Amino acid sequence: MNPNVSSSSTNNRRKTISVSGPAKYDQTRKRIERMEEERNERRRETEQKKAARKVEQAKLLAAGNPGDVDFIGMVQEWRDEQAKMHNNHKQPHYGPGSTDNHGNIIVAVRKRPMSNKEIQKKDHDSISCFHPKIWVHSAKFKVDGITKYLTHTGFQFDHAFGEDSTTDEIYMATTMPLLDHVVSTQGRATCFCYGMTGSGKTYTMSAIQQILAHDLYEELKEQGIQVEVTLAFFELYGGFVQDLLHDRKRCKLLEDGKGEVNITGLQEVPARSAEDFLRIVSAGHSQRTTHTTEANDSSSRSHAICQVFLRDPSNGDLKGKLTLVDLAGSERGSDTKSHNSLRRAESAEINTSLLSLKECIRALGQKNTHVPYRGSKLTLILKDCFSPDSKTTMIATVSPGASATDHSLNTLRYADRIKEQRISSSSNKRSTRGPASRTCTSSGPSRQRISRILSALKWNPNSSENQFDIQKATRVEEDADEKYIAESVSTLSGEISDLDDDEGTERPIKETKPTEREESEALRAARELFDVEEELRDEHFACLQDMAEMLQEEFKMIQDMEAMAQASDDAMDNYAIKLAEYLDRKELLIRSVQAKFDIVKHHREMNQSFTRDMEAFVQT
């Protein structure tokens, strides 16, 4: 190898390294610096986003809408887009430009504001109202478990009231047409409030009753109608009708030969003014049955029914009837897992009656010849409200919290099936089906009427010094009521044989006396069951006390035996004798409790048998 050539190539490599080395180093260093700058920029952006997220979260918390900031942002973005579209063709709830809600059925929905309990749970608002539509936003994650997205489920009703809607607006759009129908045509009308526990049913119904009290008497005065206003307020709980105005007295449900349902024992109370009206209603509300549920610490567990009668002062003939129903809170089966058997049976009965009510209102809206009002005692009581010429309003109340999304969807589906006005998520046009699409030609309520409706909510029935004596004002006395029962029984016994020959005519009842006897036996069985259950609890408690005392004595006996270095034969004999005594005493205590338990079990079987017989008798 030529040493000169080798030396030349080595020098060339050195020259190349010396020339290209610093340039490559500069490029690499620049790339590293650029990557460092990009990383720092991303970090700054992340910190800014975190800071902005904290500020936004604080703003939302101060505004009473806590929760996931990302979901809230997506909901707000969707609302902004919808608001732009709805501002161009916004529809009023009543008056000029509104739709005609004077069909047989009005279905409305009301969304309440976020509650303090939901705010503490950091729940966020997941419902949007753009009259006449309401949307439920369901927060979900994609398969990766990180990416968030929303689904929007829409429903369309006659009215959709948001959290900023006032009760007077709800009254004028939903209940005022019912009052006009009752006063002007001497007809019958019904207003229901339906929804999950804690959604604001009782709040809405109480406010409607307060406005109705003032509006009713002023309308009668303006139109010069001379009638006597009487009220009956009762609840349906556990299959029993209880008069809330007379110490929760239980009433009997009978049906006469003409198909009229009579609640014997229910007493009407005259209300000569709006103040009397509200005091009577307030007294009834205070007697309602409430229990703690999964969703509410004080949930109404009964259907409260307030009936307003307009009667002829001279002969007592009915000149109109308005029924206000505050339905018990609906619950799913999963919400009753921690309940006892009584609470679960109570919830099952509530849901059964709500299902029957939906079918009856649906049949009324479709003008079917057959209305299945015999599906439950609730619909049987409200039978006269399902006639073709009657009017019905249902106000569905929903909770805005994201944790109640499933409940809200169930409530809206229930109301949607009644009216059957479904919309797709991409539809922006109002459906033209049903009576809600007809144009209203009326100019709406007068300014004077609107003014008194707005001022009605300022009156507080509890602030009055004068107490209303319900017992003194009761329209139907006990003696007259017993006389009516006797006359009804004798009349029914003569009419039943005639009904057997009429084909196609429903037989309301087969016998009246067996019904009364079975009801009295069922009541007696229920009282006896309550007594023996009390005795069982007392016996069990006494048994536990004796067991605890014996347990302490046995521990002491064992400690004494262990303290002996070597137990003598006498000590062992005494130990065995005492142990045998303790075992005998325990056996006697257990047998005593077992005997009480067997008695309770027997009475429970009898009570369930009576209940099944009564339900079968009502359904026949």
From TrEMBL:
Keyword Mitochondrion (UniProt): no
UniProt GO molecular function: ATP binding; microtubule binding; microtubule motor activity
Alphabetical list of InterPro entries matching this protein: Kinesin-like_fam, Kinesin_motor_CS, Kinesin_motor_dom
Basic and acidic residues bias spans: 26-53, 505-517
Family annotation (SMART domains): KISc (SM00129)
Bias (Polar residues) ranges: 1-11, 438-447
GO annotation, cellular component aspect: microtubule
CDD domains: KISc_KIF2_like
Full protein name: Kinesin-like protein
Organism whose genome encodes this protein: Nitzschia inconspicua
Taxonomic lineage: Eukaryota, Sar, Stramenopiles, Ochrophyta, Bacillariophyta
